[in-house]
Queue: 4 jobs
Job 1
Amino acid sequence: MKAAGIKLFRIRGGVHPRANKQATCNKSIEVLPLPELLRIPLQQHIGAPAKPVVYRGDKVLKGQLLANSQGTISAPVHAPTSGRIISIGKYPAPHPSGLPVRTITLKPDFNDRWIELTPSPDPFSMSPDDIAARIAMAGIVGMGGATFPSAVKLGLRKRCTLQTLVINGAECEPYLTCDDRLMQEKADDIIDGICIMLHGLQINRALVAIEKNKPGALVAMSKAAAALPEITIVPVPVRYPMGSEKHLVQTLTGIETPARALTADIGIIVHNVATAQAIQQAIRFGRPLTHRVVTVTGGAICEPRNLLVPIGTPVSVLIDACGGVTEEPARLLVGGPMMGQPLPNTSVPIIKGSGGIVALTAVEAAVKQAMPCIRCASCVSACPCGLLPLEIAAQARSGDLESAVNNGLMDCISCGSCAYVCPAHIPLVQYFNYARGAVTEQQRARHKQQETKRLAAARKERLERQMKAKREALARRKAERAAREPPAECKAGAAT
């Protein structure tokens, strides 16, 4: 089949969960008022956590650097508004473990005063390295949920031969409409951000993939890109997980990204539409990433909305802004129901990768008792990665992690398609996540053991070198002393 002159390819597996987007797909983005406190985690991205450059009691301005990146794979954190730093310490993060992470607590002064910004009216006069550096300084990460530092992706042009930039506007996750609304309301900004990224990557082809169930976004984006032949808007089939990076690339090109490889290795870079808009804001106006659009929805939410939210806003504030809940949610998720993570409580903050807060009723959650596997292989048919979920789950349950890894455990993208179609209601993804965690822990322990052995060997070698040097120095001193002393015959002659 063809779309906008682009031949599309069918991916294996996938499912068709109910979209449930009707509650918010036609609701414009609203600006959330500032909360009383902002809890800003220093670990909002893949890689090393940011290191604070402010102290308790400091007054800061909107956009000011609060914590700087550490190492290549990291991202800085900026103040979403002006105010005062009241603490730097551990606070629960939006993660199912609920474990606390280092967090800066900011009390807004409600003046919302910006720092002096450094805009770039002509981004196309900037070098690719300058663009990547500006994006890195703005703290921009993948806003589709992966939160990988965006500047690092742009830097892949130095080691990979790139031909195409793919912009992911599929938003296949049920309930969420934050990207849909952003494309409808900020299409010109997104297209401008795409042009800036094309210049930064030094390529001249971009494909913007949008699922066909988003007609408003398709119209808005097509209109914004009408005069730009290098940008093609591509309607893609409504099939979960179309938003998965590798599967979207396969749909657009027919090329399957090898296991453990990057799409950049086959010449393609993928960014989310929200990331494109954030890059446009950072380059054109000098604004760091301090806010994001969040869909607050689900049957338990009184008035579902799409909200523009300061990073660090507690989830409870978003729910209150939507009129609270109609009943106690059976499941409260950050992200959607397929790949979202359960929240430990509503005091945790919104971070850069939080695209949605979904509060499901007991009917929507429909948690059922798991039964024994009936070997129907529905999970095999649904898996977009071509894995054998039933075999991997059995090996994970039995503790045979080596076999699970050999069968592709680490290639699983945790999309939840297998669990969605399982008639026995087996929580397959939970097994896989547990097994991956165990494998990672084993690898970490093995690495620690190897590092301990390496350090012990290095210490032994260093001590041996020191002993050898001491022996050689002692031998030299003896030789020098012997050379200074007269021979024994001379001593005897002198005595007579």
Job 2
Amino acid sequence: MVKKARGLFWRASIRYVFLLGISVILAVLLNGIVIAGNDRVAQAADRIFAGQAVDMGKLLVGLSGLAVWGAVFSFGKSLSAGHYSALVSRRVRKQLGEHLLKLPCACFDERGAGGVLTRFSSDIGEAGRFYSEILPDLLVNLVTVVMVTGYFTRMDGRLILILFASYPVMLVVADKLSKKLARIAKGFRTRMDDRTEAAYDLIQGIEILRSYNLEETADRRIGTVIDDIADHGCKSTRISSMGWLLKGVLTTVPEVVCYLFALYEVLGGRITTGEMLSFAVLLGRVIYPIGDIVFCANDIRTAGVAMERLERLFNRPTEEEERLSACDFGGKTETYDSAEKGRNGDREETAISWSGVKFSYELGNPVLKGASFCIRKGETAAFVGGSGEGKSTIFKILCGLYTKEEGEYLLYGRRIEDWDIQAARDCFSIVSQNVFLFPESIFWNVACGKPGVSRKEAEEACRAARIHDFIAGLPEGYDTLVGERGVKISGGERQRISIARAFLKNAPIILLDEPTSAVDTGTEQEIQEAVSRIAAGKTVIVIAHRLSTVKSADRIYVLQDGHAAESGTHKELLRKKGIYANLYGKEVEENEKQSPCTGI
């Protein structure tokens, strides 16, 4: 498996390696100052014990100067390391965001919002710790250990042997603990996905939860997940605490032995009292970094668990890669990189043609089993059928949100594989019954249909969608924020903003997922008039839940068992007395039953 995530982190690290280099250089200078200061103190102590005079003023001035430079170097080291960490994390998060936007929609269906959000927030932070925190600290600790042990060697090489005596034991202990922590981390990360998913569902479904008094059920669900996370956290804490305890023992014992041995060396006259004082001061600067170097294996393995999860996401083929693999010859023959080029390459009169298209969301459970149809330019075509027959799936494949598994899909006479996916999507405008608005201004939500559009053009689109007067009457007009998912405005207003967005895009093919299904009668008429304006002269494809709304369509396709079982005009299908006639008869009968109650 290609290590795409690791490669991404390494490239980001190399990009800012100069900051890491500055941090290491400043660490060298800082350690040099500490050693120099200790050396001066040791020499002064030896002179005092020998009964010689010491210029204390000069000593204090010298040490003060070293202290100032030490503070400067320490500040610079922390600053450069902090910037390195922030810049690496920023670059990786941006590139992960770009990668997420390129992934096929099926990836988000499989992993759910919780899995994707956890990887984007928690996993990338944990995996990035190796490059942004662990690696810099490791390098600085190595520099410190090398410099200080080098200084100790000048005194007595045997001190180094004692210092590193527990090193092999530390390695064995750290290895065993890190493996246990990695196993726990895998379970912890999985439960984090569940927690995020549960919280996301709770927020998205808060109205339903309260309407059906499901607060206790939701509380139990998220409470169970949180309890599991806490259990994993407690297990991890117990093992980590055991590691800290063993680390403390394995570093403290050599430290005490070193002190006793240094005292023994002083009594034997092999090192001076000043050198022992210097050794005592510097020992703490080397003994703990040694432990940190060894036990960083715990952090590395924990970060590795998050990295593995990111690898699975990064190794998922992008939307374009999936499309290329679906090509007959393993690649594109010609790329239609603009909607204009693809539509006007010849005088093809067919807008969309499908032949034997198959698709399934789950292996072994096909939704489309060989769908075939042909829609000419300027035609209005409708798809009808029962729930689960594939109407919405057809829309998703038309827009390139999902890739067909078998069959042929021609857009303006060109294979869909030969189109640039963004150019293909430029051919479509969608008006759905489930309108999604971004938590931005009304102008932003309209203008996103045509980036770079002027305020005047957006207003014209809103006039065509019969929404301008409403917007103009708001205190902040087009700058009014609609809230998350557009909750600050009504369903009909959201629908008309969606129509204005589609009008502004001015795509040649309009996809209508019965946009009037969830509004009142008065609003329905206004929306139908607005839809008629944007659909004038366009190819229109409609998903119909109410057959009465598509009686005027040029061609109606009746979906059953994953394919178009019938097709024709409304009158033709009624004369056939088949599936459509049966569905239409049931709808008429249902409407007649409701009339006495509704006053219709």
Job 3
Amino acid sequence: MAFACLPLAALAQGVPPAGAPVAVAEKPAPYDARLLRLSEILGSVHYLRTLCKDSTADTWRQSMQDLLNKEAKGEADRRARMTAAFNRGYRTFASVYTACTAPAVVADERYRAEGATLASEITARFGN
């Protein structure tokens, strides 16, 4: 009779039954922090370019979509983190700039420069 309780004890301890699918935890890439910062920059630049009515404004959102498709394909948690970073960058600048001003243009230039540097570093260090 004691053996009849064994399967229940295993379930109570969180041991999956034989043949059950096992969830695999996503292992963060060594460049994830940089990728999140790049995502945030893309969101910021997308907002600033849209605010200043730049004809390439949607390019930045599309760049983010391309980044998600390449770096987070099949990884829901990573995709969610990157999307949250993009949205955070967008919302941060939306809370500060409501018109295209000289400081907004300077911020755009600085963020694009930082983004270009990050992209180059990620590619040079971790690219294949």
Job 4
Amino acid sequence: MDIDWDVPEITSAAWAWMEEIEKSAVRDNAISNKAVTFKDAALRQYLNLMRPSITKIGCAEVLCKEKGVNKYRAFCLTDQAPLKDNEVVYEAGKGGCDKGETCPKGLTCKKGLCAKP
């Protein structure tokens, strides 16, 4: 993203990715009673970061100046491969492990989310 302010933070990049869901809703044909599937490249960044299967994330950022304009880039990697078309983003459930869902093996329920102990 190109910016016109002096000191961006990694959180500003995260907010930009989160804005994807505000600008482009998940398509109706991607939502069923059982799951939400990936069908829209406009939501790629957001949905790749919101998957419940992610247990690790690492991010890097850089700020450069080019022709008097600040250029900010942020990049995050997770422990999951990027989503492919029609791949399940998340499955429908009861609303988290504090609502009756069970956590995968090796994870425990913390504040309604499955997490490593």
